[in-house]
């Protein structure tokens, strides 16, 4: 019995992929390929379609199940692709009942979803770190983003279920857990007492003294609560790496994106975090070539990389999403978007090189992902010259750095 999962996009999809793998195996499905799609960009959708067509050619006997955000938004289009046996929505894909051998395609109205069911995952195939969903959906309406219509409203997982999932993973040997969701800084508003993300994380760490490392996925700069700030300052198990959903460095563009922060807010967050945790690393999501972006407004985004000392950039050329307000705004030529994205990536590479050079001769604790590769506390890639046991945390000294990250022995 073979169940393969191909996930595109976010870490939440990675977590959900393992939930689906478990449901499919429990249902006795054989020779099944689950394609978990992403709708963030047209390129993500293109890659998923290309993969489905390739799989249909290479494994014509396999049943292909398509799900994820792109499938939720346009199920009919995905159901007509070669080899696809069924399409499941983002709610249905996590329901074991929809994984029975004779279950049909099913995609419900995700905007009516009221809660997020808890699932116990004990293994992430081929991965040294584990992911735990703490939140689902999004209540915001950024003008470029289609994801709320693929994920539905924001809803939180109660602490007890998160705790059970973490304990299960720790029992399976995982030493680093990443808390993930669509908009995790909105955590808790729908739970009794409305506990914010920081309170949940504080309680989680207090109840899990056996967990060596906890990492957070993407954070909204305007929603970091005081409990979380205290943890950044005082809790070494909360790793010194924050990934911020920034998108742009121009106030005018941020307003047109309908973001809830401005440029000064990003600088204030990074400055405060560095004072509380010297040496902390920042990742950032940035969009190049958003509609109406001029060379001057792009220059503000490019300058923010240096001013905020953003180290690891996820850069996306703007991609029109049908039905979003931004898709109706005056567009920037695609060639210009691509060129600006390349300039941002070059700035990110230079920032990474500067950050890595600061760690020459320093000791790092590396989560080994293979015998010779892993990631440091700051989520920098590390190549080890001494063999390590995958899944274990090893202490090493940085001996060099290059375009691929750190070298350590």
Would you summarize the structure shown here?
This protein is of the alpha/beta class and 409 residues long. Helices cover 34% and strands 21% of the residues. It has helices at 11-26, 42-58, 69-73, 75-79, 148-151, 159-171, 197-207, 226-234, 251-257, 263-276, 295-307, 334-357, and strands spanning 3-7, 32-37, 63-68, 84-87, 130-133, 135-136, 155-156, 176-180, 213-216, 241-247, 281-288, 312-317, 363-368, 373-375, 381-384, 393-402, 405-408.
Notes on the protein architecture:
- The chain is of the alpha/beta class and 409 residues long.
- The strands form 5 sheets. Strands 13-14-15-17-16 form a 5-stranded mixed barrel. Strands 1-2-3-4 form a 4-stranded parallel beta sheet, with helices on both faces.
- The two termini are 41 Å apart.
- The relative contact order is 0.08.
- The mean pLDDT is 94.
């Amino acid at each position: 019995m073979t169940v393969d999962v191909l996930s595109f996009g976010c870490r939440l999809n990675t977590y959900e992929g393992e939930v689906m793998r478990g449901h499919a195996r429990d249902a006795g499905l054989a020779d099944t390929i689950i394609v978990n799609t992403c709708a963030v960009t047209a390129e993500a959708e293109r890659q998923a379609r290309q993969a489905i067509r390739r799989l249909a050619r290479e494994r014509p006997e396999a049943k292909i199940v398509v799900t994820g955000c792109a499938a939720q938004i346009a199920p009919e289009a995905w159901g007509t692709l070669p080899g696809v046996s069924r399409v499941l929505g983002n709610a249905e894909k996590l329901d074991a009942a929809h994984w029975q051998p004779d279950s049909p395609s099913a995609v419900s109205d995700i905007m009516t979803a009221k809660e997020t069911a808890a699932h116990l995952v004990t293994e992430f195939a081929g991965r040294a770190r584990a992911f735990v969903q703490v939140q689902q959906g999004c209540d915001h309406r950024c003008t470029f983003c289609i994801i709320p219509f693929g994920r539905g409203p924001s809803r939180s997982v109660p602490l007890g279920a998160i705790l059970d999932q973490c304990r299960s993973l720790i029992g399976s040997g995982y030493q680093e857990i990443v808390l993930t969701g669509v908009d995790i800084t909105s955590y808790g508003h729908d739970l009794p007492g409305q506990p914010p993300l920081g309170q949940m994380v504080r309680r989680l760490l207090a109840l899990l003294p056996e967990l060596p490392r906890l990492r957070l996925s993407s954070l909204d700069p305007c929603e970091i609560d005081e409990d979380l700030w205290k943890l950044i300052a005082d809790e070494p198990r909360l790793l010194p790496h924050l990934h911020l959903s920034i998108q742009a460095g121009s106030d005018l563009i941020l307003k047109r994106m309908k973001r809830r922060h401005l440029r000064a807010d990003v600088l204030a967050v990074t400055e405060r975090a560095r004072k509380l945790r010297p040496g902390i690393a920042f990742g950032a999501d940035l969009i190049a070539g958003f509609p109406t972006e001029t060379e001057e407004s792009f220059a503000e985004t490019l300058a923010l990389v240096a001013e905020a000392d953003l180290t690891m950039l996820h850069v996306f050329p703007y991609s029109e999403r049908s039905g979003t307000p931004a898709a109706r705004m005056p567009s920037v030529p695609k060639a210009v978007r691509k060129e600006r994205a390349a300039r941002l990536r070059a700035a990110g590479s230079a920032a990474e090189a500067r950050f890595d050079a600061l760690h020459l001769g320093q000791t790092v604790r590396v989560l080994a992902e293979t015998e010779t590769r892993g990631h440091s506390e700051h989520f920098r890639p590390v190549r080890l010259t001494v063999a390590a046991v995958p899944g274990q945390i090893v202490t090493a000294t940085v001996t060099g750095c290059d375009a691929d990250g750190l070298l350590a022995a």
